[in-house]
Amino acid sequence: FIQFRLKLLQPGTTVSQMVFEYATRPIADKLLAENDPREAEPGQETAFSLAMEMRAVREPFRTDSGFRFLDIATSAQIIDVDSVLVDDVPVVFTQDLTDSGFRLDLWRRVFLDGSFLSLHFRARVFADATRFDVQFTDRRYSTGEPLEEVNQFAAEGDADPFTVGAELEVRLKDSQNTSIVGELVPPTAVITPNDDGINDVLSLPFSLFKLTREAPVFVEIFELSGRPVRRGLARSASGRMIRVWDGTHPSGDLVRPGVYLFRVRVDADAGQVERTGVVGVVY
Asked: Are the C-beta atoms of residues 210 and 220 closer than 8 Å to each other?
C-alpha cells in the first residue's frame, strides 16, 4: 500500500505528467537535505549551500546502496558549482548545468551510513519560494543483467544541525515590494546605427520576478508622438532577459535621428506591469 499526496502551492499550477519509479533496493533508508540561506535578494548572485545526510542502516560496506550522481532541479539561474564535500573532505566532480538545474558526477560512490555531503554553488533567484529539489542516482551493474538506474529524492529535513530550519526553498527578500519587471537601465542612452561597432544597437536587459508561469512579454519602440516603430512579443517565466533593437523599422530601413520611447510590458495574472525609458538615435 503506497499513498501519494500532491500539493499545489501556487495559483495557475497545472500537472501534465506524473511518474512514479520503484526500486527493490533503494539508495538509502533515509535521505535528508536542506538549503541555506533561505532568503535571497531578487536577481542577485547569491552563494548557497545544500546540506545532505544519508542514512543507510544496512550491513556494513554493502555496495547495493549508495549513489554517485546528484540532480538538483530548480528554476533558479545556476552560475557555477564551487565545491562538493563528503564528510568534510573535498571530492572531485564534474558538473552539467542545464536550464532546469544541474547534475553532478562525484567520481566516487557514497554508500556509508551517516555520510554527510555539503554542496556549494552560486545562483540567482527570480521567483519567490524557489525550490532546490535533490535527486540521488545510482547505476548498478550485475553480471548478465542490463544496467539498472535507481533514483531517490531527498526529503526536507535537518541535515545540518548548525543551520536553522530544514527546508529546500528560498524566499525573495522584501517580496511584497518587488516589481514583476526589474530595473530597466540600458548600457547606453544614445545609439548610432552606422555599423562602426560602437553603440550600433539598443540593448534592453531586464529581469522578471515572481511569475509562477510563462506570461506575454512585449518590448516596444515608439516615436515621441506615440506612433509605434517596432514591437516584439515573447513568452517567459521568471528570469533574466535581454532584447535588442538595431534602430530600424520592420522593413529594415533605419529610423530618422531623434528621441524614441521604449517600453517593456508584462501581462501577468495580477495585471499589466511595465517599465519605460527613452533612447536617442543619432548619425
From this structure: no
Residues 6+ apart with CB under 8 A from 93: 81, 84, 104, 105, 106, 107
> Are 271 and 180 spatial neighbours (Cβ–Cβ below 8 Å)?
no
pLDDT digit string, tens, across residues 209-250: 988 788 999 999 999 999 999 999 988 888 888 999 999 999
Say which range, 84-93, 142-151, 243-252, has the weakest mean pLDDT: 142-151
How far is the C-alpha of 278 from the C-alpha of 56, rounded, in Å?
61
Phi-psi region of 200 (alpha: psi -120 to 50; beta: other; left: phi over 0): alpha
pLDDT tens per residue, range 242-264: 999 999 999 999 999 999 999 99
Give the integer Cα–Cα distance in Å for 243 and 256: 21
